[in-house]
Amino acid sequence: MPTVSTPVLAIDYDDRGDPDASPVLLLHGWPDCPHGWRQIADSLVAAGYRTVIPANRGTGATRFHDPDTPRDGSGPALARDVLDLADALGLVRFAVVGHDWGARVGYTLGVVAPERVISVAALALAYQPGGRFAIPEFSQARSFWYQWLMYVEAGAAAVADDPIGFARYMWQTWSPPGWWTEDDFAAAATDFANLDWVAITLSAYRSRFRADEPRDPRYDDLRATITATEQVTVPTLMIQGGADLCDEPSASEGLGGYFNSYRRVVLPGVGHFPHRERPDLVITEVVAHLGQHRRWRRT
Known about the structure:
Elements: E1 3-5, E2 9-16, E3 22-27, H1 38-46, E4 49-54, E5 63-64, H2 75-89, E6 94-99, H3 101-112, E7 117-123, H4 138-143, H5 145-151, H6 153-161, H7 163-173, H8 182-192, H9 197-206, H10 220-228, E8 236-241, E9 262-267, H11 274-277, H12 279-292
Parallel strand pairs: 3-4, 3-6, 6-7, 7-8, 8-9
Antiparallel strand pairs: 1-2, 2-4, 2-5
Helix pairs in contact: 1-12, 2-3, 5-6
């Protein structure tokens, strides 16, 4: 995989298809890696698109230039990484397909850079207007046990002691069984060995409710825009696993009013990793969405 230099990172990325084709950025979630998009990328290239799949900060071979840079794992930080990558590759406008953290980044880009984003397809994660995090209902809070664990120092230390085992447990419990093999996890776990993976993971979750968690001030402008903006003008497809055991399907219901153009699709029997569990269903929905909005322009 090639690497491109941005102001903060050396970003590892996969680039497939005709360089002059319409670009689609495939943004992976947590705990996952670019490899999880392989079947989706192959299908998109066959459909005439160019796909670019970056490794998130803290994942794979992506590295920080400066060891003193705050390891900020928040959505605004990841969104700026994507814009910096697009700038470095000369991508003026692009579509976004994101899973989990990547879905949050997709929504975020639709808010902070709608002139750059042709369309968004978000998998497994509901939109959060204004970027607000709130304590959910008790049933959902129970599923978020892994987040609360990281908020206490002993829990954070446990994650740092066994990050691969921590990630494995999410794979084991977030979807109905049988969707992954040991080879699948081993390929992803290689990317979790990044020296910053734990720091970015802890930052992403702890910064939501802990005011003492360091944040990188270079993203304050994006944070302000997100806080002040609830409506997403970019056409958005939301793909929800009907058997998601991490994010309850009800969390993504009733959000259409926050979008100018929005469609939600529920895949029965599918868990938290739709693109890995049922790539055939996901690619059908994504290609239709991309085709519908391929020539869309913001007014």
